[in-house]
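ok, trying the design again with the full structure, not the truncated one.
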């Protein structure tokens, strides 16, 4: 089995004391590559630092501004992130960016302006995007459809939308990121029913660590970590009645293609 955790936040301070052990446990579970996702300047910088220190572990990073922080989305901030992306070869994507009308940590107008600015920069840098969407009532899709080229690569991270939304994202050519939610009995029920509609060549797996710990690890661990992405893969293989080894290789290749990396 060969696994790629396509979305983690192991730059979070909850890993400060045992990051080495976390990375080692991931490797023991055949997690051969991982993406650390930036959500502002400090997290993007820390992700880059971790990737540099662990350069032999196939750790890649992204830079971006999360919709929660869109009210801080100044030109200086965007310029700094763009510089980080240009100067550091480990930066292979832009994001996490998008719209979140669920918790409303930033006003709608700020979120939309910030999102569109990041779409433009990522396009200029030819970087794939890591998208975050919650409860935007179709606005996220409208912006994606009207802003930018058909050739844009991206992943809808932690997909938890409707069947209709799923088909719209697939029509735009995007990958679908599946988290540990798919393993949770009640919460993951609707998502499990949608898995059959996702073509295997568009599937990628992620932890979103330290959040969204999958079953069965959820019973013992509050904190998620990249090693646990294996549970997401195994659940997908079970739902699809697929050989886990073959599915893991397909998903690993999908993730390499999305992030334009070769290992």
């Amino acid at each position: 089995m060969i696994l790629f955790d396509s979305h983690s936040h192991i730059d979070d301070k909850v890993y400060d004391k045992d990051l080495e052990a976390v990375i080692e446990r991931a490797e023991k579970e055949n997690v051969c590559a991982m993406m650390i996702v930036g959500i502002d300047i400090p997290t993007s910088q820390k992700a880059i630092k971790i990737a540099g220190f662990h350069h032999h572990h196939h750790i890649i990073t992204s830079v971006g501004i999360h919709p929660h922080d869109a009210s801080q989305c100044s030109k200086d901030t965007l310029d700094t992130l763009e510089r980080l992306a240009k100067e550091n070869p480990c930066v292979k994507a832009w994001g996490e960016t998008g719209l979140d009308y669920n918790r409303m940590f930033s006003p709608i107008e700020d979120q939309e302006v910030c999102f569109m600015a990041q779409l433009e920069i990522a396009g200029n840098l030819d970087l794939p995007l890591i998208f975050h969407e919650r409860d935007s009532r179709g606005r996220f899709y409208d912006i994606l459809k009207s802003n930018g080229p058909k050739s844009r690569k991206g992943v809808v991270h932690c997909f938890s939308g409707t069947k209709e939304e799923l088909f719209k994202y697939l029509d735009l050519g995007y990958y679908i990121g599946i988290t540990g939610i798919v393993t949770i009995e009640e919460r993951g029920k609707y998502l499990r029913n949608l898995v059959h509609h996702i073509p295997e060549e568009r599937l990628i797996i992620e932890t979103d660590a330290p959040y969204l710990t999958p079953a069965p690890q959820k019973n013992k661990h509050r904190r998620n970590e990249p090693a646990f992405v294996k549970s997401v893969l195994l659940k997908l293989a079970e739902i699809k009645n697929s050989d886990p080894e073959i599915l893991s290789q397909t998903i690993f290749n999908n993730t390499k293609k999305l992030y334009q990396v070769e290992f």
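Keeping the full-length input from now on. Residues 3-259 form a domain with the TIM Barrel fold (CATH 3.20.20.140).
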